[in-house]
Amino acid sequence: MYWEKKLEHWVDGIRHQAALPLRLQLWNGQQFDFGKQSPQVTVKVPNVSSLPFLLKPSLANLGRAYVEGKLEVEGRLNAIIEIANALAANSMTAERRAPWFHNPFHHTKKKDAEAIQYHYDVSNEFYQMFLDPAMVYSCAYFENGDEDLATAQQKKIDHILTKIQVRPGDTLLDIGCGWGALVLRAAQKFGARCVGVTLSKNQHALATERVKAAGLSGQIEIRLQDYRDVQGTFDRVTSVGMFEHVGLKNLPLYFAKISSLLKDDGLAMNHGITSTDVNSGETAYGGGEFIDTYVFPQGELPHISQVLKTMQMGGLEPFDVENLRRHYAKTCGIWAENFEANADKIRKAVDDKRFRIWRVYLAGCSYAFEHDWISLNQVVCGKSGRDASRLPWSRRYMYR
Ligand SMILES: C[S@@+](CC[C@H](N)C(=O)[O-])C[C@H]1O[C@@H](n2cnc3c(N)ncnc32)[C@H](O)[C@@H]1O
Fold it and tell me: Where does the DUF7884 domain lie (predicted)?
């Protein structure tokens, strides 16, 4: 009786605020439609214990209910994500809709390594089922907008290496090298001598194999190493899709470490996801909470202003900033499509919970980039204090 009343009240409230192409089916055969057209999404509530997730439908609660099997959902993935966002937006109080401030994570090397292995060491076969063949796991660059994913990923790598003006014989450190695509390209096309570091054992193994297969073992070294433990100096440093794991509090130290690894006239690229909340709060509606719990434990996103500020604090001068938000919406959209297309194979390769987490995270991130909840910025920087006469007059060199 108690739940029936609550549910009735909730159904009336949602219907009053928005027409949604949604059907709700209860365990007892009751069903509710929320729109004038036929429903595109059906949410099935298997028993009364699942109702609390629905009655407080933040993205964290809806996501948890789906991942833990407390709710079943049918429909196209994009429509599901739209409906989930509409439910969260219509049901949450203004206070709970606001960016969410979590307690910063404690970033010991051990905890960070565990967090990386949780996300990246699922299996290489799993990632092969939705990434491009080079397995680049960061925002691609669709220069013309109509490239396929593999082309756009290669263009992204070339865009980065051109922006930081890699020359034959340069030494290059790639912090968070993933499966090795950037160091391979830097060696093959630009003639650089590279070191790539990762905390993922699977990435380390496959990247090492790929370097060997390319006959580049003398030119590229892949290490299973925390960036905080790298020694020496390099002409060029890249960090692509990695600094999201560093932690807001650690950003000055992270940039100071890059500065100490860079030669005086060197150049570095920091490419990563940024928060669009000026105070570096987490994505609204509970999206950030879901990501912290299930997808990227230990992940934290700074606003671009905090990136630039902490970069300067760490002894680096930002030279050039480019926002690639549209590109990441498209990249995640393609990953999500690939994931759907390979769903049967992926379900056999991982457990149901993992399947559900990655399914909603990939499509949800595409939506979040699309709607300016999060963004992606590339920043070229070098050691502070260099002579102005050594800086380029324009950005033209980036497009040759
Ligand atoms: C999203 S992946 C990006 C991989 C690659 N740069 C790409 O674009 O495909 C993030 C990478 O950062 C690495 N990483 C995260 N924290 C690290 C740390 N403290 N030290 C070294 N690598 C780290 C992970 O192991 C992973 O390779």
Answer: 14-93
